Amino acid sequence: MKNYVITGATGNIGKKLATELLSKGQKVKVVGRNAEKLQELVSLGAEALVGDVTERNFVIKAFAGADAVFCLITPDFHSTDVRKEQNTIVENYFEAVKANKISNVVLLSSVGAHLRKGAGVVDGLGYMEELFSQLKDTNVLNLRPTYFMENTLGMIGTIKQMGIAGNPVNPDVKLPMVATKDIAAVAAKRLLNLDFKNNSIEFVLGPKEYSYGEITSIVGKAIGKEDLKYVQFPYEDAAKAMVDSGYCGADAARLMVDLAKAINDGTLLSGHTRTAANTTLTTYDEFSKTFAWVYQNS
Question: Is the dihedral of CA 129, 104, 65, 52 positive or negative?
Fold first, then answer.
């Protein structure tokens, strides 16, 4: 039995990861801001650590005694300086790993982290990779998943209110998309085996590349709107819509637009090659069932 600490444990990836580790009889501490949201994992045998990862002392105490930790950045997207908050969380994780002499760390990074700058919210993950590369006595695995299929759920409001699907991404640009459950499965496998050494990178690229045009067609069939059209929103309009809808603050909206620009110009996806090893199984056709359920129940 190993001792694991999972940050971001109430999110799509962290919750699935913690559940898998618990099912394998491991000792798991789950970190989150909301005690109530952690209760399901507690009922499965986890120990809840309730606090804010922007507080360094809390993180240092949370990581104590761990054989391995899973580090996931969960900034407040209504912050007036999202990148500053990302960096604070990253630095707290880094100092906690050093203070507790943690031997094994899995970082949830992203495709595009190699750019370090120019990819919006992904820049914070690039900073995380760069900082953790300084560790000499810790095995660090940088997991670089691609664009989450769950991100497309953000179109539901537009479909319901305007009758169209849309965001600032070019409808013809193909990008790999991955289901978060597949990311969690890869993270669980690596944490259970602890078979990564030194500082390494592993991509998680989903089953294939999709365009938003293709995604819209699949979604349309899933929700009974086969004539659903996709509209690429101008960057300024997209940012304003994000803020006006309450999805995020102005600073996060700017970073989201920068991410869309990096997708559209191809730079975000310039640093990887698809292989059998980094290809995962869940297709968007399968995920569209989840999309339809959320659409019908929102």
Answer: positive
pLDDT the model gives residue 75? 85
Contact 204, 186 (CB under 8 A): yes
Token digits of residue 80: 């007036």
d(CA 154, CA 202): 27
Q: How many CB atoms lie within 10 A of CB 168?
A: 22
Structure tokens at 181: 């459950």
Compute the Cα dihedral for 95, 96, 101, 106 and give only its sign: negative
- pLDDT, one tens digit per residue, over 259-270 is 999 999 999 999
Please give the Cα distance from 74 to 61 (Å, whole number). 18
Q: What is the CATH number of domain 3-147+178-204?
A: 3.40.50.720
Cα separation, 109 vs 114, whole angstroms:
10
Q: Are β-strands 104-108 and 68-71 bridged in parallel, bridged antiparallel, or unpaired?
A: parallel
- Residue ranges per structural domain of the chain: 3-147+178-204, 209-296
**Residues 68-100: pLDDT tens digits?**
999 999 889 999 999 999 999 999 999 999 999
